[in-house]
Amino acid sequence: MHEVDGEKPIYIQIADWLENAIIDGTLQADEKVYSQYQLAELFTINPATAGKGLTILLEAGLVYKKRGLGTFVSLDAQQKLRAKRKEQTLSKLVRDLLHEADLLGVHKNELDMMIDAERKHRKGDPT
Amino acid sequence: MSLTHRTAWEVVKQQFLYKLRSNAAVFTVLFVLQIISMVLMNGAAMTSEMGTGSFELEWNSISTDGVMGLTFFWAMVFGFLMTTPGQRNAAYLYVATPLTENLANFCLFGFASLIAGITTVLSGGFVKLLAQLQDVQLITETAGLFSEPYQFFTRVLAMAVYTFLTMMIVYTIFIIIQRNRLLILPFILLWFAVSQSTTPSNWLGDVIDFFYNEHSILLFLGKAGVTAVLMAALSLVISKRIEVKVS
Amino acid sequence: MTVITLNQVHKKFSRIPALMDVTFSINENVITGVAGRNGAGKTTLLKMIAGFQKTTEGEVRVFDENPFGSLLVSANSIYIDDAMSYPDPMKLQELLHEFKRFYANWDEGLALRLMEYFEIPLDTRHRFLSKGKRSTFNAIVGIAARCPLTIFDEPTTGMDTAARNDFYRALLKDYIAFPRTILLSSHYINEMQDVLEDLLVIHQKRIRYHGSTSDLQEAHLIIRGTEAQLRSATSGKVVVSKTKNGLQEEWIIENDFSEAERSMLDRRGVKSTTVTLNDAYLALTEQPRGGIDDVFDA
Fold this sequence. Notes:
CATH architecture of the largest domain in chain C: 3-Layer(aba) Sandwich
CATH topology of the largest domain in chain C: Rossmann fold
Largest sheet of chain B: 2 strands, antiparallel
Strand order of the largest sheet of chain B: 1-2
Structural class of chain C: alpha/beta
Shape of chain B: elongated
Strand content of chain B: under 5%
Number of domains of chain B: 1
CATH class of the largest domain in chain C: Alpha Beta
Helix content of chain C: 25-40%
Shape of chain C: globular
Number of helices of chain C: 12
Number of helices of chain B: 9
Strand content of chain C: 25-35%
Largest sheet of chain C: 6 strands, mixed
Strand order of the largest sheet of chain C: 5-6-7-3-8-9
Helix content of chain B: over 70%
Number of strands of chain B: 2
Radius of gyration of chain B: 21 Å
Order of helices and strands of chain C: EEEHEHEHHHEHEHEEHEHEEHEHH
Oligomer: heterotrimer
CATH superfamily of the largest domain in chain C: P-loop containing nucleotide triphosphate hydrolases
């Protein structure tokens, strides 16, 4: 479990893991989400902790509950998460990237070239 | 949450059987002790002489006093053993309370006494048999199971009750000592006082006479019963305050 | 539903205090970790809850009864530690058989499967096992008994890493299938933190913390930077511990920062992250992280 980020509380790591599964399409819209007990067993964590992770998604409207059936992915979950990630994670990464580029004296042109090169490289990659 | 409700008696039965299994060696020790004392006794038979000069009579008397003595010694050790923290901790590995723990011990003493009673009285038969193999002339005084069944059972009962009382008294004394180690002092002092006193009619003698010289079976059983109940009550009250797994 | 309640409990051993003014309660089916330094009073607390020892002052209630001398508590709880005094002549399979007779929920099949998995022979005696295997046997008993109240005091003593992981996983799986109230003590928060819901920290014979593991973790922050940076950033805040990590200072502080305050830290070049549960625990019990340096710098 700790390979993600050992310093984050486990329930947040669980929420992150579920969000990732929704973003990359492992969990599709209206698909049933792992129950807190399945998550607990999957990661050897306390079911209450797993439940707390699910609650984060529930409160963010990323999943919804059907009585007696379980928890399901909301229709707009992927969209919402993408927006959130763009706003938070990606912009932070860009900030860090520019900070590092400034530190190394890499200017805009050089940086753009590096990004393009990386894009090309990824397209060549079958994954 | 569904809790299991057990009756004390159920647990006492289970603890009794568990203690019987875990202390099986104690019974082996009893049998070995009795066999040893029988063999030794045969060599150490008492020879008595009586004569007036012209007429002389010599006879050997063989008794099971040695077997009985060792059995009482064994009973004391057993009584002490069951008060040790090791025994208590072993009982508390499973379901146990001071009440069930004591009652199971009493049951164990009862069972052990009965075994000891039977084997001691039977050993009388063996001693006779051993003697008979060497001596032709024999006047037997003891009762046999087939010749005098009533006498035989009375002897077994008497021996069992004496053994049980021994266990109960020693058990209670050591429970008291377990509760507070300092209380060993008065018992040591008492022991010295009794063993040093030379007057034949000391009070310990009276106490022994109280049980030993009772000719009515019913009265004897009554006295023993009351004593056992008193001891049981005392050890129960005290052991209710003893903590477990103190380390 | 509350399973365990302690109300202003004091415990003394011949006038030496072992626990002072302990008050807390534990709800049904919660797994609670009991942590504290050596001699903090963990074992005394657990033995009082199991009904082995009585209080000097105050009241302990388990299943709404005083556990000391209670048949109900004894029949519905099991206490596992590393000093289990099994009768010497009995073989492991005989011991297991006794557990079956005494405990209503005992799962014989599970016990035997675990014995086989951990490669513990049935026809041997407990004292002939290695230290780790002895602990493993005790742990198997604790799991298979499925008691509504299951207490493990230092269950993993002597176990190797694989056995420890297996034990926590086995406990968790069986707990999910058959929920019960579990108390678990260990010196090592790291190994047990994942299976815990709550943590009870005992420090210097008193309760220092009782609550969820994540709340404890989030109640602290770790900040890194130069000493001057950190000093200005933490004015008016409670600093729990200070350590040097390379050329940087690393401080653990109580987390009462707002979002705005945290982004303020960021702009000042002070990195702030959540602490690990272990760091939070160490901070609470005043165990300095790297404080050993002070000994050599003196």
